[in-house]
Fold this protein.
Amino acid sequence: MKEQKDLWCPERECWAKGYETVCGCDEAGAGPLAGPVYAAAVILPRELVIPGLDDSKKLTPKKRDELYDQIITQAVDWGVAWVGPEEIDATDILSARMNAMQRAIDKLGITPDLALLDGNRDHGKAGAVTTPHIMLVKGDSLSASIAAASILAKVSRDRYMEEAAAQYPQYAFEKHKGYPTKLHYELLRQYGPCPIHRRSFLKKL
């Protein structure tokens, strides 16, 4: 049996420095041509072991769904937020990502002393994470809290795109989730953009 990866090292370092409540935060959907960018913030019970917890990109959709249910049930607190296509177009995707993450943190019922953020950017021209935070490159593979947040953000966004597929069936959103695949471009050329497409991402179309 594969040994469970220890994802608690970043949190332990923060607790040792006196930060009592630490949340992980991550976003999903920066690259698609359509739909919102989603973010999640999660506070987990200390040292909680969730078998299979990992970076959402390394998991199957079925496993992500299973872990989603476990996370929202076992978390001390969690929040999910998003920034829609219109706001993305009005600002920029980096600002939208930062705004989505801060909004997810703001949805927590418990104010964290510190947030662990996936990535190496904490602000854009029109948005920033204002909660005290530490950046972790590839944090979704290093931190239990960030990994949990990555799963909530990814599953939430995928579910949104599956609902959009029913509303706009001609774009086959259920297959590509809005990402710039060959099929998506073919359907865009055939039907043009719909209300959830990011116009700023389609300038070369």
Q: What stands out?
A: The first strand starts at residue 22 and ends at 28.
